[in-house]
Design goal:
Oligomer: homohexamer
Largest interface: C-E, 34 and 41 residues
Number of strands of chain A: 11
Shape of chain A: globular
Helix content of chain A: 25-40%
Order of helices and strands of chain A: EEEHEHHEHEHHEHEEEE
Structural class of chain A: alpha/beta
Largest sheet of chain A: 9 strands, mixed
Chain lengths: ~240, ~240, ~240, ~240, ~240, ~240
């Protein structure tokens, strides 16, 4: 049984993971601020669009126009045009202030509703665009919203199970707090996803250096090296060390 | 009095522990995300099935089909067929949202019920299949559910005592939080089990390296080395260092 | 599409970031106490004023006369005169003791009001002076005021979105607690801003050394070096290492 | 005034401490999981039994039959036979779930009762067997039960004072959490006991190494070396380094 | 505009900071226990008194007679005589037990009153003696009294603003907890003051070494070296390293 | 003004501190478990008794007979005889369980009473014996009893002020938690006392080494070296390094 793979859109990366992300899997792209998570996410959707596979970009923190502007400035890719061609669809799920501080008895019910509602929104967008790929940028603010560790783990299991049932291949972005060596702020999502790609920005003497590491990928014989990479005009690109 | 041993199914490992896991003991397989805990668990049950000993796989977090798919992709083992032959049985104990946030006076009663119920489910499955081996994947979400350290320790003692009374040989998986050197997230289960096998994924210069260490094994003169290992098509395999 | 840039007023810095801060972006200037955050902020506004672009300096902690005095003593720049010429405007939003300790249900409503009110004050000052640049010194006491991490993140998203909608280019100062390697006290604002410039004061043997690093800058191919800098009579100045 | 000493039963250890544990003293055997605390405790009681001095083994966490089985498997000592000869007596004080979560006003009274009850049980067993030695395995779950640090310290003082008044020589086992360098989980018991023997399991390159150190022993000119030791068929044995 | 400077009274220090502490500024003298904070404070007031400038010494923790005795023993300076000559005035603001544990709604009002009352006491003493210099020894117990970080920051801003409005030059002492590298116990006061001088007591091989570093000084081109210093009969003295 | 000094009774130590502890001062002897604090305390009282100066030994944790036994075993000093000669007096202030968990409003009043009562007991014993020296072993359990940091600091100030007013020279023992580099468990007492002598037990390769350091001593030009020391039959003894 051969597993179908989707290209990441990152030059040199697919060959480190038997051809790309396993179809239907959930991948966490995690890194500190400024390490290139949005650039990675855009590359993943762009690679699909170039082959006629539509994708959904769910933004939970940044403004749609800022993300599109960033992508255009970095790579020259015009996501507005791709959206008109129905190859990309943006959804904004801006966090709002809860009516009151959530805690105690109602939290459980609220979290259930929240995950149910989020899954519904994603499902509608997928049906509308026949999307094969989705990006959820970022999972961190959702983790932050659910303060109880047990409930957060259950919610993350339910959300990723629903993504798998929808048949899409998902990329979630997560943020790593500065000055730590963890994989996520909450320490939960990394146990739930199928794959983890960690982006880093490491101080080396008087300079910073970008690196990418595949920390986990189910059903895949993946590279276990720490790969340096560049953000070039044409997208992300792994640097091969001979 | 010679102790009966059950093969782990990991090539080269049994000979590091006087022949295998002591019959009736409880072993914790612990490691960070992506270190091979599911692969180890599957190997343990598969080794039994190949000798006609049936086993139960209790999954508390992942979907049954994902685990079966992972095993098939990694090793080519068909757990669906083994399940039809009554050599493997899967039980799912998916965590649910509690009706309300649990705390205070009711917690003690609830935890007692939870452990009682879990033990009953396991016992039924064992009786039905005459299982000799069980895997509980993972114990971490159960630890997370019981927030009070003292109650958690008591619950873990009761659960492992019940497993010993059922006469099965048990493998529990646990997750080690990233960027720590502990043996479990809760710091409790490691004092309760008979044996601990720790899986690791250590960054060495520009690469990651997998290792396996027997940290504790009662009634056994076990290896105290840190063994590198590979995940091969034919299962896990210790690398001998000459 | 060429992005418009605003000079930072720091000698040698603009050329490290394609010409200056992207128009309309939000930049965090962060550092431990005494690393030169006020000096940086003043340079940014002064560089604008010298080209006839007016700016607003919002002080949340220090007295207006102290800031003006500091700037005069350091660089000889007369902000009083610039204020008379309508090129600079100071707003003081001194923190007050809350009527009572804020917590629970009312916090959500209060935080919403606080951010709404702060944004209004800033908007009025911008309209009055047709300001192109604003400095908010410091964001840290506002972060400290909103104790809940989730609400703080939402508030920071709303505040920076409003700044972007007003069309100004913003510099926020933040304080890094001593003896840590984080980017801010609350660990939140760094994920929200477009750019981060980190100032440092590093003990080297028997001496301290000032450094400046661009940690993140969207839509910009920026320097990834750690630059030493001096506070000279004529303003801040990067030291070029050949 | 010569102090009477009781042999530890560990080969080579008595001569490092003027002949053995001071009569009537309370010794903490502390170490991480799998370092040999039960082996040490058994050696202490066995050494007494071989000289006709009876002892009591109080188990608070493990099943009596597991401890007996472990001792038999490790050293071939038959504690069942010794129990029939009235040379060893086992008491089980299995922790139970409290009727409700204990806290607030009742805690003080409950802790007093708990210590009173435990002391009574120990005293009866001592009278019944005329025991000279007792083992309490482990003190850690009792420390965990009493969450308030001050009350825990007072309870530990009262418990050890009662043991001293009973005239027995006591060995308490304690567990050190993984990845720490403390002497106990609660940080309290080490200030209360007369002697501390610390067992360790230190990773050295690709291997783990067992060590034993006398950290404190009142009225004794003890060794201050870190001694490696082996668990042999004939009991624990210090390795002499020439 | 030349800034007026007040001598610190520490031999060799004024020349490291353009002549002394800026008039009207607030300086934090911070260090671990036993590093010489009281010696520094006394030197500052004594240097003023020798020029006919009177000063106020506010003690919040130690007894007036102990401070005077310490100063006499160290340097032979007779503060009793200086007090009779109206050149020095001691105020004791011994902390008292609050009528009840302060928290919740009343805290805000209480803190306001506390700061108001403290400022009044200081102002009266300044008016009575026409003081130019004040020492507040120590700010740490006041920080400790106000447990909420936000309120503490606001209170510290209000207190230092009031000191600046009174026109005096102030020295506040703060204590650094052992085994940390922070600048104060609360992590707040260092952001509020104009200047920070850190005293240290560094273990070097088999010996401890005293050092003094100017960590921050507004409007001043100050030394950035770590200066060793001695406590001599004639006062504190920097050691010049050629 | 020459300061009167009291010998510490530790061979070689008085000459490191201008002749001994300053009369009327409060000294903290602090160290981890097993570092010799009781041995130091006994030496201090014994040195006084040998010159006809009586002393009081207040024990808050250990039994009087255990302390006397330890001293006899270590040094051969007979404190029972000294007590009959009225040269030493023991007071036991064994901690008891509070009637209920103390917290909230009553804590402040309770702490006041506790300190008042403790000071009274000490004062009576001093009057009865005309004591010049007192030992309070240990201050740590009192620190632990008062959980609020501000109240604890106030209580410690009041207690030490009362000791100074009684005219005695005091030695308080404190315990340093294992695996830390702090000076006390609560981080408070070290700021209150006049002098600090730190005892250490440092692992050096395969061995532990005892050291003593004078960390602070008011009105004294003290040694700043880390002195190794031995516990000999004749008392503690500094080892001179040439």
């Amino acid at each position: 049984m051969e597993i179908e793979r989707l290209s990441t859109g990152v030059e040199g990366l697919d060959e480190k993971m038997e051809g790309g992300l396993p179809k239907g899997s959930v991948t966490l792209i995690t890194g500190k601020t400024g390490t290139g998570k949005t650039a990675f996410s855009a590359s993943f959707l762009y690679a699909g669009a170039m082959k006629g596979e539509s994708g959904v970009y769910i933004t939970a923190e940044e403004r749609e126009e800022d993300i599109k502007g960033d992508i255009k400035a970095m790579f020259g890719w015009d996501f507005d045009t791709l959206e008109k061609k129905k190859l990309i669809k943006f959804i904004t799920i801006k966090p709002v202030f809860p009516g009151k501080a959530i805690s105690g008895e109602e939290l459980s019910r609220l979290v259930k509703l929240y995950i149910f509602d989020l899954a519904n929104k994603i499902e509608s967008a997928i049906k509308e665009t026949k999307a094969k790929r989705i990006v959820l940028d970022s999972i961190s603010i959702i983790e932050m919203f659910i303060k109880d560790a047990y409930m957060c783990r259950v919610a993350m299991i339910q959300l990723t199970d629903k993504l798998r049932e929808m048949g899409v291949t998902s990329v979630l972005t997560g943020t790593i707090p500065e000055a730590t060596e963890v994989l996520s702020g909450g320490g939960i999502i990394e146990f739930i996803v199928d794959s983890i790609i960690k982006l880093d920005f490491v101080p080396v003497a008087e300079e910073f250096k970008r690196t990418m590491t595949i920390r986990k990928m189910r059903r895949t014989d993946h590279s276990i090296y720490i790969h340096p990479f560049d953000i070039t005009d044409a997208g992300l690109k792994l640097i091969e060390i001979k």
